[in-house]
Amino acid sequence: MEKNKLKSEQRLRRAYRTRNRQRAAGTRPRLSVFRSARHIAVQIIDDKAQRTLVAVTTHGKKAEVKTGGNVAGAKAVGKKVAELALAKGIKQVAFDRGPYKYHGRIKALADAAREAGLEF
Questions:
Q1: Does 76 map to a domain?
Q2: Residues 35, 69: Cα–Cα separation, whole Å
Q3: 120 falls within a domain
Q4: How many helices and strands, by DSSP H and E, does the chain display?
Q5: What is the CATH number of the domain that holds 38?
Q6: Start-end of H helices in 1-119
Q7: Which domain holds residue 27?
Q8: Would you write out the chain's pLDDT as a tens digit for each of its 120 residues?
Q9: Is the pTM of this model over 0.70?
Q10: I want to staple 11 with a disulfide (CB 3.0 to 4.6 A). Which of 24, 59, 92, 99 is the partner?
């Protein structure tokens, strides 16, 4: 029990650390990533207005990308979120990886979003 509690506390601390750096850095909207074993979801959030500007996921009936939570799905989600953001006039974002390492699916998503035109 203690080990599980410690892991969850460490995970929260990592997520807070990455978000606080972005809040201190400036006024860009935040590109927040959620990763599960089967799916991946991304939101572009305006922290000042406290609302979601763009959201893309591989999960649910209204999923914009149907490929799943693998690297190919992450690339597709990254490309789609960049397209929607550019359509709304958002060019620069701060990448919020949360408690996840910048590796694998998270890195693939970020690279695809950069290639599609978003600036981090």
A1: yes
A2: 8
A3: no
A4: 3, 4
A5: 3.30.420.100
A6: 2-25, 71-87, 105-115
A7: 2-115
A8: 687 778 889 888 888 887 777 776 667 899 999 999 999 999 999 988 889 999 999 988 777 777 887 999 999 999 999 999 999 999 999 998 989 999 999 999 999 999 999 998
A9: yes
A10: 99
Residues across the chain: 120
Number of domains in the chain: 1
Q: Would residue 91 count as lying in a domain?
A: yes
How far is residue 105's CA from residue 73's CA, in Å, rounded to a whole number?
8
Rounded to whole angstroms, how far apart are CA atoms 38 and 69?
5
Widest Cα–Cα separation across the chain: 47
Assigned domain for 63 exists: yes
Q: What residue has token string 């939570």?
A: 69
Q: Which two tokens stand for residue 70?
A: 């693998």
List CB contacts of 33: < 8 A, sequence separation 6 or more.
Answer: 40, 41, 42, 95, 96, 97, 98, 100, 106, 109
